[in-house]
Model the fold of this input.
Amino acid sequence: MTLPIYQVDAFTSEVFSGNPAAVVPLPQWLDDVTLQHIAQENNLSETAFYVPRGSDFELRWFTPVQEVELCGHATLAAAHVLFEHAGLQRSSITFHTRSGELGVGRTDTGLTLDFPLRLLRTVDVDVAICDALGGVASEACEPDDGGWPLLYVYEFEADIATMQPDFAALQRATDKPVVVTAPGDLQDFVSRFFAPQFGINEDPVTGSAHCCLMPYWQRRLGRSALHARQVSTRGGDLLCEVKGDRVFMTGTAVTYAHGEILRY
Done:
């Protein structure tokens, strides 16, 4: 038995940009060890696996070293595969995940993720984290539930774009991924996402991080609909809007490759 596999660039309309994710459709769940081995072999920031559940789908995400609770770009990639390659005709999908039900709607402008908003609380700026990042932040926050990521705020887009972290030092300084953010020159805000703790030094475009970024920038800018850009080397754009306790993120995706897993 072989398995289909797709590699999709998410939050972009062009290959070689955005965030690449592998998507592996399954008729039923394989054991967790095999899922992790496949993700490790793919060596991308995320591999998404989905199985049918009635008219919906169950969805899980794995980095090369562990399963994660929430992932935006691989959810976008999975929806792209269902719409573009699996022939799904309806306008929306419901995924059942470790973070609850997540919706993806298809519109004229792209695919819109319906994700949970995560409120923030202010924390002290950690000198060791700043030293590892290579610049002193003006503010630091974390989710109210004490989870990840940490959010470190800077003054200018150039502070984010030119940052060259010491990833070994960052992993020693904290056991949580770190999002750095600042006002954008052309967009409302920019960010980058560093997660050496998850086996990913830098994730190119991170939808899940915007569940925290949006309430911060909504409060600071006084608007609920914002244009965000992740200024990694590959880069990617998200149109985001807060509605109640949800964050809606719209982006596009493009298939880079598809094939078969022959041995697992």
Notes: Helices lie at 32-42, 72-84, 127-133, 157-161, 167-173, 210-221.
